[in-house]
Amino acid sequence: MTTHRWLRGLLCFLACLQATVSWAAPGSPVRAGSPAAAQVTYEFAIYYPGKPARAPLTDLQTALAQDATLPRRAESLPREASSPVLVARLNPDVQKDYRPPDLAMLQRFGRGLSREQAEALQTSTLALVVRFAHPQKGATAAYRRSLHLMAQLAQDTGGLLWDEETREVFTLDQWRKRRLDTWDGNLPDVSQHTVIHAYQSQKMVRAITLGMGKFGLPDVVVQDFSWSMNRPMGNLVNLLSQSLAEGLVIGPNGRVELAFNRLQHAGARATQSSDLLAGSQGRAELMLVEGRPEDGDPENRLVEIRFDTAPGKDAYARQEALLSSLYGSKDSITYVQHDAALLAARDAARARLPALQKAFAAGLAPGEYLLVKAPFDTPAGGLEWMWVEVMTWQGDLIQGLLKNEPFNIPSLHGGQKVTVSQAKLFDYIRRYADGREEGNETGRLMQKRQADPPRR
């Protein structure tokens, strides 16, 4: 964190501490009512890889003078803004205290930048930094006007747009495409104004939004889930974030009910309800608790999603149950004879297990995960083979999360933590962060036989 960000973060923390002493402790249910803050503050900037085409502060002053609906310019932000206000300054030494993101970060959070633009940004020495504040009443309209103002300034002066809250850099075209063209009437598509950071936290994954503060709302965090659930968990976070931005009110004990058909933004509703699987109910009840901040989190209040309302023997099974209820699931059972060809594919998979164990022990890349197919005893005395996402692998014992819903074993449920033996495994799937898959030769063999059964 650069010097000015550290200082501003400290001041923000102290101010928030004074304003939020009535908040409950982390882990306590979010109090009933609206979670929106009384005042909204956020920061945008324009980086200039070269000399600006026109004087940025002069252009800003001209724009403000020509449009009475824009914020008034002030020397500093008030503690309580009764109307929209902004503070603007030129930073002539960004390499010292407003350093742009490096090339590695731009690969993930550079929106529309060419290689040449990304490299030129590294040598930038000048930035126009603008902080906005406005009351919660009319916050969405004020935020939208700030987006248009920054786009106009970037167009007139020539530069790359920076969102301090989401830590993204945009070309003007991408700013317009994501931030300006995705509104439905007066409603934003919140997923285009926020980002979700997901990362390994101890053995499991933690995901958190950045950018909800621009709506005066808390950022959303989910703790302790597996990489294989990253996509549906991200969808759930976006569903909650959109619902909050559309005025969702928290019920008693932090309870909220989400439903696709309640979303007012047509695009967000279509995204949430596309590609649903069998069994989707399109709604879910969650519990929200006060989140516990970690290093690198946004300087904002946090609310954490809990799955206590869903059925299941442990937290992971409850996560699986809630997401399956909301988005549906795809499970089927196939009865097969373990003939020579299938056993040969099994033996080939088993031969790869020592190398996989070594790779797992060395640490998989973020977003990468490993599944193994293991046998489970049925009450009738048979075996049901199911996939398990590996959490720990020590010697012959593998502990993980059951990724199928059992058909013949009432004592087990999808998502539940289980322990299996390496010696008894039938196959594996190594899923890389870029979507590539390795393994599952037995599965492909069974699929081929189902698609093209032998003639009698």
Description:
This protein is α+β, with helices and mostly antiparallel strands. The protein folds into three domains: 31-181, Cell Division Protein Zipa, Chain: A, CATH 3.30.1400; 196-327, no CATH class; 340-451, no CATH class. It has helices at 3-19, 56-66, 94-97, 103-109, 115-121, 139-157, 172-180, 230-245, 266-272, 315-327, 340-362, 441-451, and strands at residues 39-48, 72-73, 85-91, 110-111, 126-135, 160-163, 168-170, 195-201, 204-210, 219-225, 255-259, 283-290, 302-306, 369-377, 383-394, 397-402, 417-421, 427-431, 437-439. It has a seven-stranded mixed sheet. A six-stranded mixed sheet has the order 8-9-10-13-12-11. A six-stranded antiparallel sheet has the order 17-16-15-14-18-19, sandwiched between helices. A hairpin with a 5-residue loop joins strand 14 (369-377) and strand 15 (383-394). Helix 2 (56-66) packs across helix 6. It is elongated, with a radius of gyration of 26 Å.
Strand order of the largest sheet: 2-3-5-1-6-7-4
For this structure, the CATH topology of the largest domain is Cell Division Protein Zipa, Chain: A
Number of strands: 19
**Shape, please?**
elongated
- Counted by DSSP, the helix tally is 12
Biggest pleated-sheet summary: 7 strands, mixed
**Percentage of helical residues?**
25-40%
Helix-strand makeup class: alpha+beta
Tell me the strand percentage band: 25-35%
Examine the secondary-structure arrangement and name the CATH architecture of the largest domain. 2-Layer Sandwich
Low-confidence stretches: 1-22
Terminal residue distance: 70 Å
What is the gyration radius calculated from CA atoms? 26 Å
Mean pLDDT: 91
CATH class of the largest domain: Alpha Beta
